């Protein structure tokens, strides 16, 4: 009997867990290797647009995810001093629900859907050796595995990207994001004194604050900012603690509702936002990358994780089309069908212009990755 080909996914974040779920559900033999020692409910809020919810439908997780989050009808953009509405985008009628949810709850749902025997924690990748027949992955703990294909879903500091293109540190964007949750009695008091929008982006001077509920019960409200800031010395960490005074200074003179949200928040953190230029290649040999490993972006469109999940869906479709023996064609088709859209979202998100004024967001939310026809390489060459 012919031995089944093995796929390794490096990284069990939102993108890695998505592509692993889709591949496993399609019958592929997939192991996931995550450097963290265990799962943890990290992060806070995240948007899941209809374009992404359609992929959760394919994962068999749409209903469960919908039950976890709030369902805003609109994305409202407001002036940061007057609260005047600058733009008001309908989030319905795109073929699936739009939700806002706690990132950790969404991530846990994805992780629990995987074959737990194929999910390996404490696996920090140290070395990658590929030849014409296979790839050997060696981890810091001394273990090694040999597989047929490797999918790098290991983020902006991707080890797989490093193999493709060499060592290069990401570039600091000049911006930071403050993140905080509001809940319990503080949230109740805030709601009593101020009318909170279900999903709102406040535009203030050269910065902004995005705020929304993260649970169906609306018992947790979250905000994330985008603020110009000198480089931070994070000493190798992803974020640092912040505080109310730093936030109030950053939004001095802003609308009272913004200042009230800051006052009511707890455990404020500050995250430097790093980026990379669009990459010239997304694969080499038996290695391919998805998500932040190949197109990291500022979180200003709420589509960064979404693009990683879309990547995983298209890569799965391409591998199903060609079979694993013709992985090189699959990788070329995947890059062809993803690069233009991912680059457009990356560019708009980094520019921070999305819905700052009235526009039709259908190009983002109306997209259905399963409705896109996968061309053959010959058709691509002839076009």
Alpha-carbon distance between the termini? 41 Å
Write the CATH fold name of the largest domain.
Answer: FAD/NAD(P)-binding domain
Please list the strands of the largest sheet in the order they lie side by side: 5-4-13-14-15-12-17-16
Work out the strand percent.
Answer: 25-35%
Q: Mind summarizing the main beta sheet? A: 8 strands, mixed
Q: What is the fourth-level CATH superfamily of the largest domain?
A: FAD/NAD(P)-binding domain
* CATH A-level architecture of the largest domain: 3-Layer(bba) Sandwich
Cα gyration radius (Å): 21 Å
Count of spatially separate domains: 2
CATH class of the largest domain: Alpha Beta
Count of alpha/pi helices: 12
Total strand segments: 19
Mean pLDDT: 95
As a percent range, the share of helical residues equals: 25-40%
Return residue spans where pLDDT drops below 50 for at least 5 consecutive residues: none
